[in-house]
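We include the pair:
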Amino acid sequence: MPTPEELLARIEALEARALAAEDYRELVNLQGAYGYYVDKGLWDKAANLFADEGTLEIAGRGVYVGRARVREYLGRLPEYGDGTIYNHMQLQPVLHIDSAAGTAKGRWRTLMMVGFIGREGRWGEATYENSYVRERGKWRIASLHGIINFYCEYDEGWHRGGVPLLRSTEGVQPDRPPSFEYEAHPKAVIAPFHYDEV
């Protein structure tokens, strides 16, 4: 027969496991929501998923610091409308969560279909190395770092090479330079890992 102390220890262990499972679900939903908002050009909603001091770094264009600057960057991207596709599927999560500290790190893959009717249509794929923080009781993106592995014209395919990365966004300058310099396919790039082994 377990002692009261042993039963209490079991309850505490089960509570910790339940919290970890709930945190995992919330983080998957958070990252998935980001992808859906980007799909439809809902830039304000996407920006609201970031922590107050959250950062965004995409395609080697530099780092934008703070939710207001993330919103400013996203607001410079083309509007969503008729004839536009922005699909950004969030796939293959590897999450490491410290529930007690309210912090987490995650690695994701995004498969992209981007196009404007009559102008261009592209496939793309990127690795996200992100961090998260629990802020005012909700998980938020502390840093989103999208490392582009390839962009290519949909009708030519990646076997013919790739589209060079656009290194700036018109009308807005980053707060910090890129974390590291790289070029996408056909150059080989490996996004830094937040973990050595699972």
